[in-house]
């Protein structure tokens, strides 16, 4: 694996680590390397925030189990992420601040002083408010520090050959435009609709983003046909769930 040995050696040099684990591609690579490098001296902390879907929770648990990680799950409520439902431009920062605060707390309780996250070298060019929170809580990012970008990280992930169907998932709050507040019921409605879309179309990676009552569906370029082939049925189902109308993004997104 290109960069894998370097990543494992780097983590080994840290001696004891707590990994902020989300169940995504990058944090899975990081955690798998920690398991290999420090089998008895690592801990994974999964912060279960209200903006996650049940699908995301299930994938994270399955991944951690398959790679043999020592994992602790901490459940955060809406009171732990104050003002997050206002969906301001600070949303990601507020979320990460809450997550890293709890990661630090769990790490400290278990005797770990070094905390890691899965930010990769490609993320540096992106606008990521959560990076400020990582700095505030002294969270280290080995993938970024070693120059391991998104492509190399994905190659390492593929080499893990996991049996879990991991998809690139995002926080459910991203289904609403910045500045548009949401409720827990709003998130659960979208989660249920996305599950229906998967079941009908067969597409796995789906985002249903709301704007003025209209559902805009996004998937990767190679699976757009799965949506368009079932467009009429999907629209009918969504209208029955109180959606005003539905659009399918024809360009698709990478991820």
Task: Describe this protein's structure.
This protein is α/β, with parallel strands linked by helices. The protein folds into two domains: 157 residues, HUPs (Rossmann fold, 3-Layer(aba) Sandwich), CATH 3.40.50.620; 66 residues, Alpha-Beta Plaits (2-Layer Sandwich), CATH 3.30.70. Helices cover 44% and strands 14% of the residues. It has ten helices and eight strands. Helix 2 packs across helix 7, helix 4 runs parallel beside helix 5 and helix 8 packs antiparallel against helix 10. The protein is globular. The two termini are 21 Å apart.
Apparent shape = globular
Number of separate helices: 10
Low-confidence stretches: none
Query: Number of DSSP strands?
Result: 8
Tally of distinct domains: 2
Strand order of the largest sheet: 3-2-1-4-5
> Beta-strand percentage?
5-15%
Proportion of helical residues: 40-55%
Biggest beta sheet summary:
5 strands, parallel
| Through-space gap between termini | 21 Å
What is the CATH superfamily classification of the largest domain? Answer: HUPs
The third-level CATH topology of the largest domain is Rossmann fold
Per CATH, the class of the largest domain reads Alpha Beta
Decide which structural class fits the backbone: alpha/beta
CATH architecture descriptor name of the largest domain: 3-Layer(aba) Sandwich
**Average pLDDT level:** 93
Topology of this structure?
Elements: H1 4-14, E1 17-20, H2 25-37, E2 42-48, H3 54-66, E3 71-75, H4 91-109, E4 114-116, H5 130-136, E5 139-140, H6 142-145, H7 150-160, H8 184-201, E6 207-211, E7 214-218, H9 224-228, H10 231-240, E8 245-248
Parallel strand pairs: 1-2, 1-4, 2-3, 4-5, 7-8
Antiparallel strand pairs: 6-7
Helix pairs in contact: 1-2, 2-7, 4-5, 8-10
